[in-house]
Write a structure and sequence with these properties.
Blueprint (H helix, E strand, L loop, with lengths): L3 E5 L6 H12 L3 E3 L7 H14 L4 E3 L2 H11 L8 H9 L3 E5 L5 H9 L1
Parallel strand pairs: 1-3, 1-4, 2-3
Helix pairs in contact: 3-4
Length: 113
């Protein structure tokens, strides 16, 4: 069994559905990191919480992957450089599953909800 499983993707892409099935199959609880944050303090809190749970939980997103995406989408500088986030993540040897939508229009509709 992999040490760490992270499920990433936009809202409405099926992450929660997949995680419920993985939770039953693997017997690990799911940790939800939530969406974007607006302060470095909150980002660091989420980052450390995610790192603390990587071996014992399934992760619904992780700041290691989401933060650079949210920063670009919000036209702001990331709280930590992307290479540093990926290096921190690499040490956990994760399996990353990306759920995608069939169209960008669906993603924008889901974001508006």
């Amino acid at each position: 069994m992999p040490k760490c499983v992270i499920v990433e993707g936009p809202d409405g892409a099926g992450k929660s559905t997949l995680l419920k099935k993985l939770e039953r199959y693997l017997g690990k609880p799911v940790y939800h990191t939530g969406g974007p944050v607006d302060s470095e303090t909150m980002f660091l809190k989420k980052l450390h919480e995610a790192e603390d749970r990587m071996g014992s939980h399934l992760l619904d997103r992780t700041p290691h992957i989401s933060e650079p995406i949210y920063a670009r989408a919000g036209s702001r500088r990331a709280f930590l450089p992307e290479h540093e986030l990926h290096e921190r993540l690499r040490g956990n040897n994760p399996v990353v599953v990306y759920c995608r939508l069939s169209s960008m229009a669906t993603m924008f509709r889901n974001m508006d909800r």
